[in-house]
Amino acid sequence: MKLRYFSHSSFQITTDAGHTLLIDPFLDDNPTCTVASDDVAADFIVLTHAHGDHVGDAFKIAERTGALFICVNELANYCIDKGFKAHNMHIGGSYQFDFGRIKFTIAHHGSMTPDNTYGGEPAGVILTIDGKSVYHTGDTGLFYDMKLIGEMTPIDYMLLPIGDNFTMGITDAVKAVQLTNPQCAIPMHYNTFPVIEADPEKFKQQVEATGKKAIVMNFGQEITL
Ligand code: NI
Ligand code: MN
């Protein structure tokens, strides 16, 4: 599979079979993203929670592509109410899709939609695709159950916030990597706005000092997992 990082918490996964998934596609109003929402493909859109910097351009993209939303029940119903297709899930549950498996995990955060509708509990997602597991934590503070998450599903790539203020900062994120024990950590949710400025190289160095691997993806970069 291929993993493309737009910036913030926005990623695109292209599977070996050619399915495309977007996670939290915040592109057009994202000052660090150089890709326009009109230019991205999507068969599926995974939302971790309902905040504007995660729902982003999801509806605009779904209107054009007919993508299926995958999110927790309350947010999925919100999408359905807006006329979109959704697969309702919830925390602790997993489901086998054509492209692979998704499991929803807890995240400690909030989840109100931009028009002030309750979006259900915020979540993280574990995607198991083409024999690899990718854990996108969503927006969250540090929590000890990350240890359990990593024990139940050995994680190949952990995508986690380091920007502080709304989520974990670097110190807590390094601890999160130690608890979850992935093969590789990739920082996200930083440098989009002044309030979440953080140095991803500092995160990488601190993760490496614990004997783990980290990759800092450039905004717009695509890598093969
Ligand atoms: Ni948020
Ligand atoms: Mn956020």
Description:
- The protein is of the alpha/beta class and 225 residues long.
- It has a single domain (2-224), classed as Ribonuclease Z/Hydroxyacylglutathione hydrolase-like (Metallo-beta-lactamase, Chain A).
- 22% of the residues lie in helices and 27% in strands.
- It has 6 helices and 13 strands.
- The chain has helices spanning 52-55, 58-65, 73-81, 146-152, 170-180, 200-209; strands at 2-7, 10-14, 20-23, 44-46, 68-72, 86-89, 94-96, 101-106, 123-129, 132-136, 157-161, 184-188, 222-224.
- The strands form 2 sheets. A 7-stranded mixed beta sheet has the order 6-5-4-3-2-1-13, covered by helices on one side. The chain has a 6-stranded mixed beta sheet with strand order 7-8-9-10-11-12.
- Strand 9 and strand 10 (132-136) form a beta hairpin.
- Helix 4 (146-152) runs parallel beside helix 5 and helix 5 (170-180) crosses helix 6.
- The radius of gyration is 16 Å and the shape is globular.
- The N and C termini lie close together (6 Å).
- The model has no long low-confidence stretch (mean pLDDT 98).
- The chain binds nickel (II) ion and manganese (II) ion.
- Manganese (II) ion binds at residues 51, 53-54, 139, 166, 189.
- Nickel (II) ion binds at residues 49, 51, 54, 109, 139, 166.
